[in-house]
Design goal:
By secondary structure, the protein is an alpha/beta fold. It folds into 2 domains: 133 residues, 3-Layer(aba) Sandwich (Rossmann fold); 193 residues, Rossmann fold (3-Layer(aba) Sandwich). It is built from 13 helices and 12 strands. Strand 4, helix 4 and strand 5 form a beta-alpha-beta unit. It is elongated, with a radius of gyration of 22 Å.
Length: 341
């Protein structure tokens, strides 16, 4: 008998559903009422979608083997609860890396060249600012080129490596990176100076004109950038966050922007989301803000859908997937019992 995967909402692109249908039966749950959903949950081996998946949902699906998230994170899924129940959790990490790296560079350019500031000026004043606006101390000051400036990338996964390549090749920028798990020899081969100890972050950060966060959010990385790291930045440096809002201590970042520890910030992610209407960032001229759209590009939609479908199918075949949030689940007694004939 073919296994079944429930789609509570449509996939981002039809290509993902097509990939699933080649090997499993897809249950379209978009119009289910509560009773229909409960009946489906009791019969499926997989669930895919950006839904909140906690213990209560998992306990309603006794046959569940895998939960798939069509993105780079796992924020909507209680991974610990899934692990306790022998359920694999997979995602589509890497499907958006180029888009997010491009977005980081866009924020870097917007800040350095004062593009966001100039755009707001023209929309508001409807006239060219005098040159005196771009002189003197404080914001906005003179715009800068980014070519040849030093960038520090915290997190050297798919996004970090692509960003490093784009910065080096496109803008001749020296690249420093922090990642406790990446190989130093391989980083050196890519022309990147790698730091592997968290205690070294201030040493890395103080050398940079741009500091870019591209880390996944975890207990280990929550508030990895706090007051000490922000105070280590150069007064003329810019902070960029395209990872998750919780990786930075936002109150400390607000102070850094207000008190001039750093020149400005480009922020695509917030903690929490959606952002409160009265958030301090909204009143700051030295910020460029985007609403968590770095990876949200047309080209990525098929990749996200197909990637998460393939990861789920690997699990349902009994093959270890490449993008597994809870690797400890793979040999867990609960899983072995579930797969026993």
């Amino acid at each position: 008998m073919r296994k079944r995967v429930l789609l509570p909402t449509p996939m981002l692109d039809p290509a993902g559903e097509e990939a699933l249908r080649k090997e499993v039966d897809v249950v379209d749950g978009r119009d289910f009422d509560a009773g229909q959903e409960q009946a489906a949950m009791a019969e499926v081996e997989g669930i895919c979608g950006g839904i909140a998946a906690g213990p209560e949902l998992m306990d309603r699906a006794p046959r569940l083997e895998v939960i798939g998230f069509p993105g780079s994170g796992f924020e909507t899924i209680d991974v610990a609860a899934a692990t306790e129940r022998g359920i694999a959790v997979v995602n589509a990490a890497g499907a958006q890396y180029s888009a997010v790296a491009e977005h980081a560079i866009g924020l870097m350019l917007s800040l350095a060249k004062r593009i966001g500031y100039a755009d707001r000026w023209l929309h508001g004043e409807r006239r060219y600012p005098g040159r005196e606006v771009y002189s003197g101390d404080g914001w906005p000051g003179f715009p800068h080129e980014i070519g040849g400036k030093t960038v520090g990338i915290l997190g050297f996964g798919f996004i970090g490596r692509d960003l490093a390549r784009k910065c080096r090749v496109g803008f001749d920028m020296p690249v420093l990176a922090y990642d406790p798990y990446y190989d130093e020899v391989e980083a050196a081969r890519q022309g990147v100076e790698l730091y592997r100890r968290r205690s070294q972050l201030p040493e890395l950060i103080c050398r940079c004109d741009f500091v870019v966060l591209s880390l996944p959010l975890s207990r280990e990385t929550r508030h990895i950038v706090g007051e000490a790291e922000l105070r280590a930045m150069r007064p003329g440096a810019f902070f960029i966050n395209v990872s998750r809002g919780g990786t930075v201590d936002e109150p400390a970042l607000v102070r850094a922007l207000r008190e001039g520890w750093i020149a400005g910030a480009g922020i695509d992610v917030f903690d929490p989301e959606p952002t409160p209407d009265d958030h301090a960032f909204f009143s700051m001229e030295n910020t460029v803000l985007t609403p968590h759209i770095a990876g949200w590009v047309q080209e990525a939609m098929p990749r996200l859908s197909v990637t998460v479908a393939r990861e789920m199918l690997s699990v349902l075949r009994g093959e270890r997937p490449n993008r597994l949030a809870n690797p400890e689940v793979w040999d867990a007694p609960q899983r072995r019992a579930r797969e026993a004939p």
